[in-house]
Amino acid sequence: MKQDMLRTAAIAVAMIGGLSAARAQETVFYSTQLRPIEEATKVRDVLLKGIAGKVTYVVDEPPAFAVRMKAETQAGKRTVSVVGALHGELQPHVPDDLQPVDDLAAKVASLGIPENLMTLGKLGTDKQQYIPWMQATYIMVANKQALPFLPQGADVNALTYDQLLQWGKTIAEKTGQRRLGFPAGPTGLLPRFFQGYFYPSFTGGVVTPFKSADAEKGWETMKALWAVSNPNSTNYNFMNEPLLAGEVWVAWDHVARVKDALDAQPDQFVTFPAPAGPKGRGYMPVVAGLAIPKDAPNRAGAVAVIEHLTKPEVQVQTAAEVGFFPVVKAELPTNLRPGVKLLANAVAATQGAKDAVVSLLPVGLGAKGGEFNKVYNDTFQRIVLRNEPVKTVLEDQAKVLDGLMKQTNAPCWSPDKASQGACPVN
Amino acid sequence: MTSVTATPIVKPSGISVPGARRLLLWTGIIAVLAWVLLPIYFVALGAFGGRLGVFRWPKSIWPSDLSAASMLQFLNIEGVFGALMNSFIAAGFTVLFSVLLGAPAGYALARYSFKGQTAFRLLVLLTRAFPLAILALPLTVSFIRLGLYDTAFGVSLIHTVLALPFAVLVTQSLFMGIPREYEEAAWVFGCTRFQAFLRVVMPLALPGLAATAIFAFVISWNEVFAASILTVRERTLTAYLLKVLSESPLHYRFAGGFILIIPSVLFIFAVRRYLFAVWGIASK
Amino acid sequence: MPTRANWIPYALIAPSVVFLGALFIVPLVQTIWLSFSSDDGTLLGNYARMAGDLNFSVAIRNTFMLTLVVVPLQVALAIGMALMISKVGKGRDLILWVFTIPLGISDLAAGLAWLAILQNSGYLNSALYGLGLIQGQTGWLSQETPVTLFIGIVLAEVWRATAIVLVIVIAGLQLIPKEFSEAAEIFGAKPWTRFCKITLPLLKPSLQSALILRTVLAFEVFAVVYALGGTNFPVLAGEAYNWQNINQNYGVAAAYAVLIMAISIAATVFYLRVLRVRPEQLP
Fold this sequence. Notes:
The complex is a heterotrimer. Chain A is of the alpha/beta class. Helix content of chain A is 45%, strand content 13%. Chain A folds into two domains: 2-136 and 287-333, Periplasmic binding protein-like II (D-Maltodextrin-Binding Protein, domain 2, 3-Layer(aba) Sandwich), CATH 3.40.190; 138-284 and 358-408, D-Maltodextrin-Binding Protein, domain 2 (3-Layer(aba) Sandwich), CATH 3.40.190.10. In chain A, helix 8 packs across helix 9 and helix 15 runs antiparallel to helix 16 (390-408). Chain C is mostly helical. Chain C has helices spanning 7-35, 45-52, 56-86, 92-100, 107-118, 123-130, 146-173, 178-186, 191-202, 204-219, 223-229, 236-245, 250-274. At the B-C interface, helix 1, helix 4, helix 5, helix 6 and helix 7 of B face helix 1, helix 3, helix 4, helix 5 and helix 6 of C.
């Protein structure tokens, strides 16, 4: 019996080994972006068409991505030739798991990728680590039913946090339901709200003024906002569903996470930039990049994929098909789908806002990016959900944040003032 | 035949169960049936209800404007067939290995008392007591080194680790229930230990082994974590779909959830007769 | 009667030991090692961070509460279901099949199903609204309704994982010789007495297996809990998962995993002691 088993096993291994040998020339494109079924299908059927050779598009959630990149490096055998991931997801893999792509940077130089994006792609080193692929940001979405309750004189495109609070209060009073919504679930992007929107708007910084008096005031506003937000917010990972279900009327989230709602019912929703606070209208761009892992089995194939995806016409196609916007110089067509058009309008309004305070993505945190997010999440949990005193919590968490900064020696990034050495927490 | 215990009932029973108790019995059974089936029915409604059906309020418990669009799109995704094959390969090997490894161990635990018995039990249980997801990194590294990475066969090995506690525990209680006098009688009639096992114990144990196989199949079929972390191209269907599913629109998630329920439910249905046809042989 | 051929049991367990050693123990040891090597260079640094985390005590409390409520409920329900099935003649196969269907349902599907029932615009609210019991959508799963959230999670877990216990109990029940019960009946024992004095004691080996498995699995639960409770109901396995995947600190995640393993081993040893099965008690 045991011999049979061994024989079967041997046959199986041989069979499978043969299969993978036959596929040696394909290019495995491994991505944390464009995972949902409809989008992954579009990548396979539309965006990757026209590349010579077989490209296999595989997606994974960011945690699995991180594990696989590390494991393949540790074991010294690479299956993946090209990866697509967010700036923050690529950051922990420098320098161990990625190879510099300076040759490609030269090749795409003529495409008009903005200088600051290319700099982000160096991830704090002096070599190009990834080529920018697509960009996105976070926007507000409101159900049209909520518009009659807007405070007197408020313009959704130039909303302030005070007006948002008033809006939420009026909705709660008039409809009996708390209908603001935040993605505060386990995989929701709420930490990004604090880092890119809330802190810049209220304090003009992210790290340095973490426990300032301005921050304290901001957190009091956050508590008030929460009091008129749907209590189910701690279950929301994506705002699509509560928006479509009518549970939430006014929401903040990543464009990719509200796109389905807008696509399904473009007439039902309006989109607009996030609100402004005393220090301006904080906003955070999102950049996804394409990189080549160390010892990629098919570097030529990887280069072909990157060159193809950064072509202006493919970039435009990407915007039209999946709602991520070009990094290269390209005109978006006017006949976009209504849902994508709603996204594009809000993104344009955000970028064009006069009082915009751009918050860059953190650079230099390395593997500590997750714990950096945790600082903001924990602060929220303790102040807003557990009702602990604001000052004490900020003091506590500031220590954790300071420790992280010192440990990674990460210098300040915009909108914090540039620093020599680790970014200080004052 | 009014016994309360699960005596083998070959002919229809309940004749002597008084009317009131019979009513109570059937009320109970129908309540449990509804309890099990209703949530599945709701998943099916979501799967066929179309894009906006899942957001309707108040919801009707009757199906309305059914559409198979999301189900069909699912089956059209590139690579579904290959993934399905991988699922069967992985589940097949898992069934094979967990029975081959688990049954002897279960027999040893049931029939012998030996030093290290408790340690072995604990070892087997450990695989279930430790969150496997935390082992992702070291596991992946060793799989790459062993050349098992990105193969359905490799996935089945980890699934066997997960299924083994069930296999050992189920077979152990199974063999404990088969009186050892049967075997001893066989020895008296000149059978070797192995023959006695094959001719006397095995037939009695088959239904229980079928249960072990079901567990193994279902565990492998539904397992996502190992299947997605240890493969890149050779994903099993569950890993292939669930990975993209968790962030897809709600109606797709219902469709995917429903599609993945079907095979395991059918599998349980297929072996059900076999599983319970031999009901009662052991309790003569 | 234990036999003299002492090598036999070892030969029987050897394949599984080798198998588990290669595929499980090696990475396990590496992970335990990882849990004791922290950033700050101290032996217990990761454990200190774990214990100092804001969710730690909540997660411990929630996990134990859930286990203590769910496991006994499942065992009681499974015994009830098994006894009911044993009294059915025609259609038993079909009923049994339906009862065991949840075995084949993944965490994702189970979470989806119960979310479809319990969420604001779900079937429960629709039914209550239809009956005129509530005015509009009512939340059951938020941080502000911890009791109904807990009940919801318990219901989903009982629904999802009772079938495993049922199969083990049925396998055990069918091995009990009917003569025992018939003899007791002749002597005039009431059904309840027969159940307590005969069925339950003879079911002990099966119950022990079922309890151990279910308890160990209950300490690892998190997929359904997170589907229903989001961040409102932290549990140990979920925290381990978050530390590894969201916070990207593998050391603290390993510490959580080691803690879960320690608790599970303690529970297993407890059951093995309390529900000791002696060979002479077997039929």
